Amino acid sequence: MEFINIGFGSMVSRERVVAIVGPDSAPIRRMTQESRERGMLIDATYGRKTASIFIMDSDHVILSALPPERFGGGEQEEA
C-alpha cells in the first residue's frame, strides 16, 4: 500500500483517492459543507488555510494545507 503525505505527518492511501482539487469553487465548498454535516470531513490543515481537498472512495473528504500541485507527481494533464 502506497501513501501520500498530505502535510504535518498526516497520510492517505494513494489507492483510495478519487480526486485532489482546489477549494475555490462553490460546488466544492458545498460538498465540503455537506461532508462536515454527515461527519465525513477530516480536517488535516492544523489550523492553516485549506489549499487542497482530497475526495476519497469511502465518501470521506480530507482537507490539506498543501497545494494540489504538490501531489501531481508529473502524471497530470491540463484540460
Can you offer a commentary on this structure?
With 79 residues, the protein is an alpha+beta fold. The protein contains one helix and six strands. It has one helix at 26-38, and strands spanning 3-7, 10-13, 17-21, 41-43, 52-56, 61-64. β5 and β6 (61-64) form a beta hairpin. The model has no long low-confidence stretch (mean pLDDT 92).
Structural class: alpha+beta
DSSP helical segment count: 1
Mean of all residue-level pLDDT scores: 92
Helix-strand sequence = EEEHEEE
User: Spans with pLDDT under 50 lasting ≥5 residues?
Assistant: none
Number of strands: 6
The fraction of residues assigned to DSSP E strands is 25-35%
Radius of gyration: 12 Å
Shape: globular
**Largest beta-sheet characterization:** 4 strands, mixed
Whole-Å distance between the termini? 29 Å
Provide the spatial order of strands within the biggest beta sheet: 3-5-6-4
Helix content: 10-25%
What does the secondary structure layout of this molecule look like, with pairings?
Blueprint: E1 3-7, E2 10-13, E3 17-21, H1 26-38, E4 41-43, E5 52-56, E6 61-64
Parallel strand pairs: 4-6
Antiparallel strand pairs: 1-2, 3-5, 5-6
Briefly summarize what is shown.
The protein is α+β, with helices and mostly antiparallel strands and 79 residues long. 16% of the residues lie in helices and 33% in strands.
Structure characteristics:
single chain; 79 residues; alpha+beta; two-stranded antiparallel ribbon; 1 helix; globular
